Amino acid sequence: MARWVKGDKYDKRAAKHLRLEDRRRADRFLEKLSETPPDTALNLKPMEGHNGELWEMKAGGQNRFILRRVRDDQGGYFVVEDVGPHDIYKGYNKRR
Amino acid sequence: MAHALEQSSAPVADYGYLEAFTRQHRQADDIRALFKEHIDQTATVIRDTSTNFKTVAQSVLDRCNAGETVECDGLDALIDGVMTWEVALAQDQDELARALEIAERAAREENPAVLPVIAEAGRHLTAIHADNAEVCRDARWMLMAVRARCQPSAPVGPIQGQPMDLDAYERSFG
Question: CA–CA separation, A13 vs A42, rounded Å?
Fold first, then answer.
């Protein structure tokens, strides 16, 4: 489990990229971050090339979160910055 | 930041030539050459646009990593532009699938020798779509990451969850 909080820009960014049902599913994935140890189902990991400042995590379906790691007196936690489609091109060539 | 790369939702290509050439009763090699000319044109349009997005995104990331000021106001529009282009590519893929079906039907009716040529064109065009869609997705994701660093959100509401040793977790990735 980990600590997290939504950022003040998250809702606006999410509304641009995801439909309502996808945003609701994304919220359920965030709840999993609270309730369970990070496992392969969430695929929580640092984003390459961002020195541990940014992390990514599955948000359900083809979507992923961008999380920004910050610290307070209790240690590290995540600010949820963004969400958007990522795994959208798997099987693209199978469409035909 | 310039936004010349913003795209409209205009069609990427017209694939009507697939049926039109098929119905001309030419030899398969002639039709293959005609298809190639059009496919090359489509590939150029798609690759140029996708490469432009990739170049801009990489440049923005490099400036961010170098500690240079990134004009964040333009990032929203740039990300929207890439997304619009990705949607256009997906719609174009659907248009292509429809055009291929129509061309294959025409070939079965009038020129069956062309069927393999149509299939070949379909594979080639689909590969162009797939490659460039991924290029654009990576560019968009790069820009979204830069935006998260340049325009960080302020926390809203109480922090959820329980403390976890994120340093140890990060080290587990090696």
Answer: 21
How far is Cα A64 from Cα A51, in angstroms, rounded to an integer? 19
| Binding-face residues of A in 45-84 toward B, CB within 8 A | 45-47, 49-50, 52-54, 66, 68-69, 74-77, 79-82, 84
Domain with B18 in it: 2-171
Cβ contact, residue pair A84, B130, below 8 Å: no
Of A70, A71, A67, residue with least CA distance to A83: A67
For residue B150, count CB atoms less than 10 angstroms from its CB and return exposed for 0-12, middle for 13-18, buried for 19 or more: middle
pLDDT tens sequence across A17-58: 899 999 999 999 999 998 766 666 899 999 998 989 999 999
Domain count across chain B: 1
